[in-house]
Design goal:
The chain has about 220 residues and is of the alpha/beta class. It has seven helices and seven strands; from the N terminus they run αβαββαβαβββααα.
Length: about 220
C-alpha cells in the first residue's frame, strides 16, 4: 500500500514537475544475472531524461540508478529500464521480487539491444507464468501521447530486418511491462557519435521514449 501511494505521488510530480527545482523523479536501470550486458548504452537514460525535461516539462534526474532485480531498492523507483544483447537469468527470488514490484504499481521497459529476445522471454515467464505477451496495436495510446506514431514503434536499427514490434504484459488491466523489439530505442537515445545515427533517427527514438515514460506515469 505504501508503494502504491508513493507511485501516486510520483505521478503527480511528473505532471506538475515544472514547479520543482530539484529533480522529482529518478529512473532505474535493471541489473540482472546471466552474463548479458545490462550496462550497455550508458548515455541513453541521461539523454532521454534531458529530452523529456526539455520537451515534456518534466523534472527527471539525468543521473539514473543501477538497481539489482532482486533488491528491495527497486521499490523506490516507479520506472525501470532494462536492456542488453545476451543472456538474462532471474533466480526464483528475483522473479518474485520483480513480480511484486510490477503488481504494486511499478513499470518495466525492456529494450532489446539485439540478441536478448529469447532469454528475456524465458526470464519474464518466470515473473508472470500465466501471462502472455500481447502485441500492442498501432492505435494504442502509447503511440499517441506527446508524439504521434501512426505506424507504431519506429524502426531505429536494422538488426534482423524484421519490423519493429511493441509487446506488453498486462496484469489486471494495466500494462506493467512494455517490450520494444527489433528497433533498439536505447541506441537511438545514446550520444550521436556512439552509433552515428542520423538526427532524424535519434529524434524518433527519443520521442518514442518520451511517449513510453509519459504513458507509464499517466496510465
Amino acid at each position: 500500500m505504501k508503494f502504491i501511494c508513493y507511485l501516486s505521488i510520483v505521478t503527480t510530480l511528473f505532471v506538475l514537475s515544472s514547479s520543482f527545482s530539484p529533480p522529482s523523479i529518478r529512473l532505474g536501470l535493471l541489473k540482472y544475472s546471466g552474463g548479458g550486458d545490462w550496462y550497455s548504452n550508458p548515455t541513453a537514460l541521461p539523454n532521454l531524461a534531458n529530452f523529456c525535461n526539455k520537451n515534456l516539462h518534466t523534472n527527471i534526474d539525468p543521473n539514473y540508478e543501477t538497481i539489482d532485480v532482486g533488491s528491495s531498492e527497486i521499490f523506490n523507483y516507479s520506472f525501470i529500464h532494462m536492456t542488453g544483447h545476451g543472456n538474462v537469468v532471474f533466480s526464483a527470488a528475483d522473479a518474485d521480487n520483480l513480480r511484486l514490484y510490477l503488481q504494486s504499481g511499478g513499470f518495466l521497459h525492456i529494450d532489446d539491444n539485439y540478441g536478448m529476445d529469447p532469454y528475456v522471454r524465458i526470464a519474464m515467464k518466470a515473473v508472470f507464468p500465466d501471462l502472455e505477451w500481447v502485441e500492442l496495436p498501432f492505435s494504442h495510446e502509447i503511440y499517441h501521447k506527446k508524439y504521434d506514431f501512426k505506424n507504431g514503434l519506429p524502426k531505429i536499427h536494422k538488426h534482423d530486418g524484421k519490423p519493429a514490434q511493441g509487446f506488453a504484459l498486462i496484469w489486471e488491466g494495466r500494462v506493467v511491462c512494455y517490450y520494444s523489439y527489433e528497433t533498439d530505442l536505447g541506441d537511438g537515445w545514446e550520444d550521436q557519435e556512439v552509433h552515428n545515427d542520423t538526427e532524424e533517427m535519434r529524434k524518433k527514438a527519443l520521442q518514442m521514449g518520451a511517449n513510453i515514460l509519459q504513458f507509464a506515469f499517466e496510465q
